Amino acid sequence: MTTTNRATALEAISKRIVPTNDAPHDGDAPIDYYGKDVFNASAIRKYLSRGAAEKLLATIQDGAKLDPSVAGDVAHAMKDWAISRGATHFTHWFQPMTGSTAEKHDSFLDLNDQGEAIMTFSGHNLVKSEPDASSFPSGGLRCTFEARGYTAWDPTSPAFVKRNPHGATLCIPSIFCSYTGQILDKKIPLLRSIQVLKQSVARFMLAFNAAPEHVTITLGAEQEYFLIDREFYLRRPDLIQTGRTLFGSPPAKHQQLEDHYFGAIKPRVINFMAEVEEELWRLGVPAKTRHNEVAPAQFELAPTFEELNLAVDHNMLTMEILKRVAERNGLVCLLHEKPFAGVNGSGKHNNWSVAYGAQNLLDPGPDPRHNLVFLAFLTAIIRAVDMHGDLLRTTTVTAGNDHRLGANEAPPAVVSMYLGERLSETLEQIEQGVNEEYRANPKQLFVGLQTAPSITSDDSDRNRTSPLAFTGNKFEFRMCGSSQSCAGFNMFLNVAVAESLDFLSTQIDRFKDSETFDADLEKLLGKILARHKRIVYNGNNYTSSWLEEAARRGLPNLATALDALEPLRSKANQKLMKDYDVFTEEEMESRYEIFVEEYLRKIQIEGEVALDVASNLILPVALEEYGELVKALKSAQEIGLECGQSSLRETANAIGKRADELQHNLKALAEFKEITPENYQEYINITKRIREAVDSLETLVDDRKWPLPKYREMLFIY
Ligand code: ADP
Ligand code: MG
Q1: With a threshold of 0.85, does the pTM exceed it?
Q2: Which of 77, 237, 247, 323 could hold 694 in an S-S bridge, CB 3.0 to 4.6 Å?
Q3: What integer pLDDT is reported at residue 567 of this predicted model?
């Protein structure tokens, strides 16, 4: 390979060691350092006066309105605590519509009247900050001439300290809105939806005469990701620029032997995982499960579930830490939904439930047939998903997730729910007005070993193909992409369920004190189920027969990304969001604009990178080899060699044919004027044809000359 200045630079960069920041020694066992970088209840009690501490904790734990007079005390305590953890700076940490987190640091350092250095952080600094909002996506909500935007402290998610190689920063989880108070982020609507659902759950439980309890919406987000060696990554301009490989022909062996899933974890990877866990535990993120996933080089991390707003923040942090720790280990963590064609992509499973005090409302208990609160709650969710499933689909749209949904590795674009046979039977009984004993059916499993402990089977099997599966005591939504924030999906689900609960509560109130409450309720549930049960499907969602069946049932199949964004503009959905004070119509429209623009921009960036790499890296190599073959053939003809001429000719022809195809499609792409909602599919098709030509050339061109690391290397050598 020729050595250019750039190649030398790359070589040097790839050897660079990323510095680390050794955290203060808080002990070696997780139990000693868990949550030490969080301004949590124990830090609050230690650094604040008792009165102020109790006020702050009441806000964090019970959602009480924060007494503004304590902000100054809290700021002071937070600063002292953060400095004790090595922090020199603070930042409002927020979640704009870019999909990632944003931060702008200010140091605690200031000068007093004598010009001496002091460390300051006021109540004002804590509560509000004013980043220039003009460079964040707003979907037309905010013109650049009124660029003021505000971030404001979200006291329900604890502040934390984020380490960098040379210090640390106090991060204050924050919301982000425009000068006029319009929503510019993902946290405000999530918090509003939580507020709304909590109220509706409280009202619903009151209809059952339940004693008041604290309502908690819970989320456990399973995070999938790929790891590859950083040396390969640095030599793949497509990965660097788009997060996925735009080229690469599948290796002979990929995931067909199913030998990676749950396989023994390689030492380098487990070392990485352990470092990730240590950082997460310090930040109070309860990382719980780690394992190899289906595709080679693919892994998963799942935390113990937590309160929804906190869990979303923690997932954002998890993604950041996965990337950072990977780099420190000479690896790169790919969070893209489909970094490699031909092997499974990565999703993020959203496990959602609601707790009323200590009671999980989705826990069927031993006798679900007679657990009326459970049945009513479940019915409300079925109704909500049937009525607003299109909104849930909307939250899964990204250019990356397009490659995953419906590709026999993730649910299709049709939203449906899986309940399992037994629960479906129970609901059928309600609908038919039949009352049979619930026959719990855990079987004793016989494994044929005297020494094995006895095992009983679960009451229902799993269904991995359903978009929204009931998994025993929670719903698991599997359509979200690995790189996405969980805020979108959970926000819409919360509001849709809140509306359904309110609908039920209103009906229940009519016969609340009746002697025949149970029968009346069952009749009501039966009526709702009859109307909305079409959303329940227990079969295999990956089959084409399901898509036909779904069409017969009238369930929307929003197959393309831009169609799937339309529900943001539907009157019914806009009304729902407005009635519950989560979004105005204008804000819903702005989200539509943002997502369409982001989607098209990403498609265009992919096209331009493909054009660049194929024109400047691939075609020259292919043509060089073609030229050499032609020269060799000519010499062979001149000296009249008996053998080899036909193989030279055939190889030259094969390479030439592919090079022509490539050239032809590169030209078409270069001439493509402007990418629009009407023509983007054609744009994608051209980039697909470019890929086909390049992937075919990869199998023809001399391996020693191929400029890009190959799948068989990236996916297996790490
Ligand atoms: P799986 O076999 O699908 O990986 P797990 O039992 O590992 O299922 O759980 C997956 C996720 O679901 C975990 O993050 C777990 O904490 C979460 N989870 C469990 N119970 C609840 C609940 N009540 N609410 C929300 N998430 C939950
Ligand atoms: Mg799961």
Answers
A1: yes
A2: 247
A3: 97
